[in-house]
Amino acid sequence: MRPTPANLVRILVPIKRCVDYAVKIRVKPDGSGIDTNVKHSMNPFDEIAVEEAVRLRERNKEAITNITAITIGPAKASETLRTALAMGADSAIHVEIPESLTPEPLGIAKALRALIEREQQKEPIDLVIMGKQAIDDDAGQTGQMLAGLLDWAQATYASKVTISDDKRSVNVVREVDGGAEEVEWLRIDHLSHRFSSLEPRYASLPNIMKAKKKPIEKLSSEDLKIDLTPKLEVFKYEEPPKRVGGGKVANVDELVAKLAEAGIKAIPTS
C-alpha cells in the first residue's frame, strides 16, 4: 500500500545520455558506427522534462512528494543523472547496461513499464514526464509505447501541465496543428509526453554539491527481467553527401537552357 495520502504525487522523468548537441557527428572510417569518444550530455528535450517537473513541484509544493530521474545506459550515464539531481530531482535510478548495447524504443518502454510496476510496491509513480525525442536516433516513440504498454492515457507535445487544487486531476495544454488543445484527466496516474520551449535552469554549485549526496539506485536489465537486445541490425553508417553550391545565370533564357540540360522542361506561361 502507498504510505502517503492518495492526493500526493510522485513524478518519474526518464532521461538519456547523448552525444552533446554542439558536437559534429562523425562516422567511423569503416562505417560500423559513429565516433562516440566525444562530449556527452543530457538529451536537451529531457532537460526540458526535468525542468517542467521541478517547476511543477515549485507550483505545488504540498502536492508533489518526489521527482525521480531514471536512465537506461552505460556506467557513464550516472553523470547525467547527477545533472538531473542538481537541477532539482530528489532521487535517481540507473539501469546499467554495457556501453556496446544500444536499446531500441520498445525495449526502453518495456524496461520503464517493469520499473513502474516494481515501484508500485513501494511508492507508486503517478505521472511520467518525458522529452518528445532523443537527438541521437530521433525516434520519438518511447513515450507512446510506454503509454500503450501501461494502458495509460498520454498527452503528446505538451506545452503546459497543471495539477488541480484538489490534487486529483491534471490539465495539459498540447501543441497541435494550427494552435493548442487543452485536455484534462480526472486521475493523476497517466503519462505526459513533454515538449516545450522552457529554458532549463543551470545547476548552481551548491546544488551540484548536494546532488552528490542524493541516492542513485543501481539496477540491471536482469533485475527487471527485460531483454534489451536490439531487434534491428544496422549494416552500415554513411555521412550525408556534401551540399554542392548553386550557380548563377545572367537571364531567363540561360536559366531555361540550364534546366533543359538537367532534363527539366520549362512550363509555358501562356
UniProtKB/TrEMBL annotation:
From the record, what ranges are coiled-coil?
A: none
Required co-factor(s) are: AMP; FAD
Cofactor-binding details, from the entry:
Binds 1 AMP per subunit.
One GO biological-process annotation of the entry reads: fatty acid beta-oxidation using acyl-CoA dehydrogenase
> Where is this gene product found?
Mitochondrion matrix
Instruction: Give the source's domain of life in one word.
Output: Eukaryota
List the InterPro entries.
ETF_a/b_N (IPR014730), ETF_b (IPR012255), ETF_beta_N (IPR033948), Rossmann-like_a/b/a_fold (IPR014729)
Give the principal location in a single coarse category: mitochondrion
Sequence ranges assigned to domain Electron transfer flavoprotein alpha/beta-subunit N-terminal in this UniProt record: 30-228
Instruction: Return the GO cellular component terms, semicolon-separated.
Output: mitochondrial matrix
Q: Which residues cross the membrane?
A: none
- GO MF term (any one): electron transfer activity
This protein's record includes keyword Transport? yes
> Which SUPFAM superfamilies does the record associate with it?
Adenine nucleotide alpha hydrolases-like
Q: How does it assemble?
A: Heterodimer of an alpha and a beta subunit.
Q: What does this protein do?
A: The electron transfer flavoprotein serves as a specific electron acceptor for several dehydrogenases, including five acyl-CoA dehydrogenases, glutaryl-CoA and sarcosine dehydrogenase. It transfers the electrons to the main mitochondrial respiratory chain via ETF-ubiquinone oxidoreductase (ETF dehydrogenase).
Q: Which family does it belong to?
A: Belongs to the ETF beta-subunit/FixA family.
Q: PANTHER family annotated for this entry?
A: ELECTRON TRANSFER FLAVOPROTEIN BETA-SUBUNIT, ELECTRON TRANSFER FLAVOPROTEIN SUBUNIT BETA
- What name does this protein carry? Probable electron transfer flavoprotein subunit beta
